[in-house]
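Sharing a chain and its predicted structure for anyone who wants a worked example. Both blocks are below, sequence first, tokens second.
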Amino acid sequence: MIAQIREQLYELFKSSEVHSIALSDPQPTNFIEYTWLWILESYGEFGLFLIFYLSMAFLYALGGLFFYFCDKFHWFQSRKIQIKKYPTSDDIKRCINNLVTNYILIVLPLGIISFPFSRILGMQHSLPLPPVWRFLFDMLLCLIGEDFFHYWMHRFFHTPWFYKNIHKEHHYYTAPFGFTASYAHPVEVVFLGLATFAPAFILRPHFITFYSWFILRQLDAVLTHSGYDIELFPFNLLPTYGGTAFHDYHHKEFTCNYGSRFTWLDKLLGTYKEKKSPTKSN
């Protein structure tokens, strides 16, 4: 196993070299496949990974900034869950410092290490890309699977020792804001990251689905930590989706609502509590 991992890591960095696709390989049939193939030919598999990583970080920052502006300029205040509770400049600085550290020292290495396991499991970069229905179906299964694994991992982190020494850091903010989605102790980032990897490793989808899933997971986390229950976002169309109010209440009460986004497992196991709807403005 160690030899396989070492070989796949070597292949990852070797693949950063520009290479061409043989004529016998499947040819692109649409804009997305042409773009995917162009990136592979121009930058290799490692270059594609870096583009994904930077895109994930950029979209996380963009989502966090959007909700920062909601707080600063009082947008969507009728959807604000914890009324008149806004992060201070010190709160934001503390959060950003933690995020930068985690993204560079934890998230990036985890992404690189995951590559050999993905290749060993048979995941591919090559064409053809999955059809839309398969892409959406795999994404839905990842959402459901991650929610299941996250529930148990999260509940484990609420046992006395792990909460006191690890998970308490994430609960520093009882009124979370968008940037706090990945604010956590490094150990928690690793273990809850495993909950995100798990459904993808079980499904073994195409890499475009694998990468898209991680971006979606981060955006969903920003939304559920935003402090705003905005029903326009498409996640609310999913059955049993608890949304921001569901997770915001966990940050306020601590011992309930352990799922990432769905309420079904908390309701089934008696750990669900409902947050009152935000006060509507006149």
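Comments welcome. The two ends are 63 Å apart (CA to CA).
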